[in-house]
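Dear Dr. H.,

I hope your travels went smoothly. While you were away I took the liberty of generating a structure for the chain from your last submission, since the lab meeting agenda had it listed for discussion. I wanted you to have the full record in hand beforehand rather than looking at slides cold. The sequence, exactly as received, is reproduced here:
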Amino acid sequence: MSAVTLKFILCCTLPIYSPGDTVPFSQNWYSGEEVSGIPRTIRWVFQRPDLFRYNRVEGFSPGVRAQFRPQSPLGPISVTGTASLGLANLKPNLRLDFTRETLQDRITFSGFHELTAIDERAGHLRLGNSITALIAGRDDGDYYRRSGASLEWARSSMEQSSFRIRVFSEYHRPAKVESDFTIWGLINEKSEWRSNVGVDTGWFLGSSVEVTSKWGSDPFSPHGVMLASLEGGAGTAEYARANLLGSLDIPIVPDMRISLEAGVGTSVGDLPLQRGWYLGGPSTLRGFPPRVLGGAQFARVRGEIARSFSIGDLSLFTDGAWVPYDHHFDGETDNHETLFSAGSGLSILDQLVHLDVSWNLRYFLLSSVRFDAYLDLVPF
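The corresponding predicted structure, in token form, is as follows:
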């Protein structure tokens, strides 16, 4: 790490003093204070885990977030601005959100110029993936840059169901791998990042709908989650895609349960590369590297039997996935076939931290064994 980088990080995290003022900057800008009667919150870098990340595109990316809550003719709203800078590519990320929220509804208008992940639900820009990217040189995410605006309406209910509609206008472009530092790379000089996914550059206007339904709150009874989503876009390319995901936990005896998960997805039209279905890694297909499968359609299943002990939960699992061949995705994935894996896992700290050892069943070799770590269904 260069002296300039270290100085930048220290300036963002340590208290800053002004001449003639004995109160630290961090205290002046703490949450709950007001400016001209407007509540505000400002956070720097390590004050929030999502304001300091590491990935193979940006390297270290420290950020700052400011939130104000002014009154408006529609009632109180939240204005949130977030900014960060990738120290490897020196490209800024900017986002401004205007949010009006009630007990059940939330409406957000956003403007952004930022790096984003292909699979936003997997949390590849969060703390877990940053840790293993920095230490082990394993970044499970694939990224592209987008600029534009969106309007989103979300509704949730006391029954744990939610409904979300989003309308967007975005310009997409590729993100190059520009970081060259990992702690593992200090030991193994041959360590290299895997390539990033390709991107179909251009403007995309579209909308998406997402419905989530959860049932069962008793841990001693069956409970599960169902998620359905539909997205369509036009502009540089016209496409539509849909997917359905479901999971079910079934207690069988005290301290033992069976977990099942399945998902399918399809698409029509000229699907952009950044909107394809990609499988591989701990969130979709354990035992294989990220983006081992990819295309315009997919199906996947996983099953697990787990037993709770005082140290945590021990499990045996198996995963399977299928993606048919699509010439548009040549060069983006390693395979177009059906793949299976099996393995064992340990989850600790009330299932917050997961450690998995899995074996891809395509080759019966010792080199086919893969280790993964992730935080509560969010891959590291």
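Two observations you may find useful: Residues 1-32 have pLDDT under 50 and may be disordered. Residues 251-380 form a domain with the Porin fold (CATH 2.40.160.50).

With kind regards,
E. W.
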